[in-house]
Specification:
Layout: H1 4-8, H2 10-20, H3 34-42, H4 51-64, H5 75-96, H6 99-104, H7 116-120, H8 125-134, H9 148-158, E1 162-163, E2 169-170, H10 173-179
Antiparallel strand pairs: 1-2
Helix pairs in contact: 3-5, 4-5, 5-10
């Protein structure tokens, strides 16, 4: 069993994590602390991350960290872990909602955050038909009949899209990386 203090006290969790991982995601605090960086990059638009994504990221980070490294998890390994966790999360959401891949594929190489019109202009009639076809044997997007605006609502409801205050669209790293969208200064997207 996990000791009560470890299960419930953030300070204890942070201390333990910093015994395993580089403290910073770069040479200095500029890129952030590894302890908070990892869950932030694994969360959906509501900040929720799945235990499977977290465990996948840690597993890959450990595998990718050099055996002669001073700690078990390097910052570079953690970034690679986020890439692997993103692939896993995209596969999982595709199992329940196969239409998501059809909606996101045309957005590959798009720089986010971006305006909703930038997203919607890539969703032509062929894409909308692909989304409809992909959901033939599963529950379709609730707002598909509303066109691209409705599809945006459905992706936001799943946590794939994050609608920012000014109406722009962001895609959390846990989805963005595997779907191949770009972000300045972010974890690099996976290439096909």
């Amino acid at each position: 069993l996990v000791p009560e203090r470890l299960a419930g006290e953030e300070g204890v969790q942070r201390g333990l994590f910093e015994l395993l991982a580089d403290k910073w995601m770069g040479r200095d605090p500029k890129r952030g602390r590894a302890y908070t960086w990892l869950p932030r990059h694994l969360g959906d638009s509501a900040g929720r991350s799945s235990p499977r994504s977290f465990l996948e990221a840690i597993r890959v980070a450990a595998e990718q960290t050099a055996s002669d490294a001073p700690l078990a998890l390097s910052a570079a390994g953690i970034r690679e872990g986020v890439q692997a966790a993103s692939q896993r999360r995209v596969t999982e959401i595709g199992e329940d909602h196969p239409w998501v891949r059809a909606a996101m594929e045309p957005l590959r190489d798009l720089l986010v955050p971006c305006g909703l019109p930038d997203v919607q202009e890539r969703w032509n009639d062929d894409v909308m038909n692909s989304v409809k076809d992909a959901s033939a044997n599963k529950l379709p997007p609730r707002h598909l009949t509303e066109g691209p605006a409705g599809l945006s609502k459905d992706l936001a409801a799943l946590g794939v899209f994050q609608v920012l205050d000014e109406g722009r669209i962001n895609v959390p790293d846990v989805y963005r990386v595997a779907f191949g969208l770009r972000r300045r200064g972010g974890v690099p997207p996976l290439r096909r």
